[in-house]
């Protein structure tokens, strides 16, 4: 009754947060390359003045360097292999393959890099798990075409998906189309390439962008299934339970609405193959017009549904529309907002820690969809301190992950089909939400600070050997505690 044989223990990163080499070997700029670093990142991105212009005199752009994984991937994958990884989730940088996004032919040097990266994984018996689009669409498509609200992006993505699937499908079984696709409801800049100047504040554009992504995802599934019989192409979303703050019926209703809008809408379409019956009400609540569709769109979405659900889980959120929470009880998290849950502790960045919420999430997703589930992000962002002897004693991270893995196991006992677990930021990388290095998630410490200073040397944290033991015992060492 423990984790299944072949369970995909591993770790996760994203190209824009770790690779660096942002203009090397023909790569074009991505939207992530134009995002300033620092805790004001989203304030800047959501301002009317922001127009995707890079201003190096005014801002730092930590994604340009990342952790230089582009040149150090062999060293990093060797460390992953030492931990015993069964899988490594990473993303392909779209603009490394199509620098502008609208070219006819791919950049061979970009394809060659991922050939080498994938082969390095396979050398150690590590299963590559590849995200096609992880918050890094080509900047040209956002600036010139206005992001995913533009129907033309579908054809560009189809060309990109065809290029990478034809090149790598024989070596890569597990894929995901769009990272945290549902984040567009709260923050369309990352996944949809929309900013206020290009219509981000109009929810009609957000729903239109989603429709185009649904079509693009279905096209990618079609291409993949035609190339390889056993290929697995999943969707990927943020999942967070929304608890009502109390038993007031209005808070109960608010919680249900938030879960439908944020947690279920995008997966209802991609997994079930149709827009849910509450779509009209959802559009009404957000003041949005129905997305414009072309002939054959709904049939395509229906025919080419995803094979599994990949999701990130970091926290839960409480909802309160009645006003029982005070003004100081506001809580934030992974591109979502709510009120503080008095029963939970929070990380240094205010993300509420809720291991039992992961079991709830797994059960809710399994009950709703009955497709395999894959936790492709989970972890604790913390300001790790490197001691004088070079050690990083991150017991708090071990405790966080241990409790979440225990709840994963309970969900498996509940009957959930769980295929893998790849904690986020298995090696320290640039934070997506703040562009900081000081918000660290990894089992591996990278010597780099928020100002870009450091040697980039890698070293093992205490959690490194702990996670190695978890993988070696298929989680049994935790269950025996």
TrEMBL record:
Provide a GO CC annotation, any one: cytosol
Q: Name one GO biological process term.
A: carbohydrate catabolic process
UniProt GO molecular function: beta-glucosidase activity
Top-level taxon of the source organism = Bacteria
Please name the InterPro entries in this protein's record. GH (IPR017853), GH_1_N_CS (IPR033132), Glyco_hydro_1 (IPR001360), Glyco_hydro_1_AS (IPR018120)
Q: Which residues form the active site?
A: 377
Keywords of the record, alphabetical order, are: Glycosidase, Hydrolase
Query: Which Pfam families does the record cross-reference, listed alphabetically?
Result: Glyco_hydro_1
Task: Specify whether Transmembrane is a keyword of the entry.
Answer: no
Cross-referenced PANTHER family? 6-PHOSPHO-BETA-GLUCOSIDASE ASCB-RELATED (PTHR10353:SF122), GLYCOSYL HYDROLASE (PTHR10353)
Protein family (similarity comment) = Belongs to the glycosyl hydrolase 1 family.
From the Swiss-Prot or TrEMBL record, give the protein name: 6-phospho-beta-glucosidase
Please give the organism: Trichococcus ilyis
